[in-house]
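Sample intake — TonB-dependent receptor domain-containing protein
Collected from: Mesonia sediminis
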Amino acid sequence: MKNIFLNTLFLFVSIISFSQTSDISISVSDAGTNEPLLGATVYFEELAKGAVTDFYGIATFTEIPNGNHIIKISYIGFKTIETTIDVGTKKEFAFKLESGGNELDEVVIQSSRSTRTVRKIPTRIEFIGAEELGEKAVMNPTNISMVLRESTGIQMQQTSLSSGNTNIRIQGLDGRYTQLLRDGFPLYGGFSSGLSILQIPPLDLKQFEIIKGSSSTLYGGGAIGGLINMVSKTPDEEPTLDIMLTQTQALGSTANVFYSKRNEKFGVSLYGSGHYQKAYDPEDDDFSNLPKTTSISFNPKFFYYPSEKTTFWFGLNGTYDDRIGGDITKIESGENGVHQYTEENVSKRLSSQAVYETQIDSVSSLTIKNSISFFDRELTIPDFTFDGKQTNTFTEINYQKSANKTDWIFGANLYASDFDENDNATLQRDQTDITYGAFVNNIYDISDNWILETGLRADYNTDFGFFPLPRVSLLYKNDSGFSSRIGGGLGYKIPDIFTEEAEFINFENVLGIDKSSLNAERSYGVNLDFNYQTRLFETIGFSINQLFYITAINDALLLNSTDNGFFQFENATDEILSKGAETNIKFTYKDFRWFLNYALIDTKLNYLAGNPQKPLTAKHNAGSVLMYESEKWRIGYETFYTGKQFLSNGTETTDFVTMGLLLMRNFKFGSAFVNFENFTDRRQSKFSPLVLPPHDNPEFPEIYAPTDGFIFSVGIIIKPFGNEDDD
């Protein structure tokens, strides 16, 4: 009798409980267009229950208990909303999301010189955000090479074993064709180019913006292959303090500190970095694969906000870097018998940046900026020293105006560069260049689906004349997740002696630029890409980007030997033609992300017989990155394939695969991490020699593979003001 009563009571309670739940639907749409949003996430936090909206923007739920519930609705490119609904009073709920979230599509890109977001800019721009930058900073806290090396179609080309000098190659084109920017300022050109990547720590950067192909219309000469704009962190009302300490098994120690804070009128950001590396010789061949390095950087910035519409900031950037590589015995004990060869680079850099920005009214703004950079470098090998100082100045004013369907940018700038070689040098290769520029750029919304961008720059160089630089880009996008961009433009580069070929021979016996006999390098290029993103099986996010490109360079600057043992610059008789394709695929599932990429780089030197492939340029490259990210853990596994390459003498190299593993644990105080970089220990010395005899005067073959091999690092990030995640 008792059991019958209990069963009856349980059934009665179950019936009551069932009657207190409801099946509901939640529709999500774009507040601006009223279009339904496919793939928006709706989540009941207390119930730990979520769903994704379908093609009609509707998410359905069954058996939701009646009463008040907090829900969170999020979608890429839109502001996340968190609100309370009363289940039981009705079964259908509707919400509209406003654009302006902090995801990729809503990030404002500075390199476009527009206030538009990625989704609405016809120019193809690749974006690397703070989260990924944080991962790469853990993998390599000393410089930004890791960030760029793992981007599709970008190659970090090392030009010196002893000093580690490295250049950026975009789509197979030499490093001098890539314009490096920081907060929109030209960065580290000329004499500093080979060391610049090694002297930019990543901790105070919040995003990277990469434009591939001719970009000279917006930023002037030097952006033939593309441009990379590094955007710095800015202070917020909440103080930020990050302390990062890293140690490697190769006896490299790094410390980074970043602090920022602002109030109503003033703000400040302070960044400092110190790095020491002991000379590292994994082959035990008595020559360093990593140079002995002492590097110190500091970067204070001061902000003033006289009103809500106006900001003025001033920054300084200073770097001291001393790196010496070569014979380990000489480095550690001094010259002794055959132990004589070292290469030492001592460089000092100081630069300033000043920016004034004001919102004139609701649709127009004015920006004035100036930078002055001073660089002092001394490169020493036995019996030869290349010593010089370079000063660069850049000033720009631009006016922006936005209307309902069109954005205008008008600007003018002045760029001056002065290189002064030591007066004791046998070859005096001093060079001064002054360039005046004016530009106009327009973005016009033809319709909801079509957006056109056009631009024109007119540069005048006092030695090489006038350069008209038009460009045009067209964007098509629809609401089903598909978009496509096509664009093209012209570019140019003023000749100077700081090329990869000259760097490789330490500028020894390299004659200066003869402006009367040389032409500026000129280029044209076209990009076409297709993008698609959707949801697979409602739980798996999928996106793909397919790029096709072609860039041609005329009057390319070549370094050729003369009959009397010198090297002189000449213009190529035919073009360099680089064409290819890049594929990027992304899958997301809960806390997992999987990135796949492939790059075809077909760069031909048409000025040589047979139109050979450019040396040290792998035609086929591929990569895979699998990431797991939760509140507590961040785990990444990377695999990269580099195809066969040709050396300058026509020898074909072997292909190889490198792998890396990152483990990171978040705590209340910050994070701790371990990183296994290139843990399969792929390095060039396993395929071919890195150093050729004689020992006292060695020869160094071209570098086509990693030289340092496996690097294991451990570190800690301390956040005294709290961490987003805890244990």
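Post-analysis note: Residues 8-19, 101-106 have pLDDT under 50 and may be disordered.
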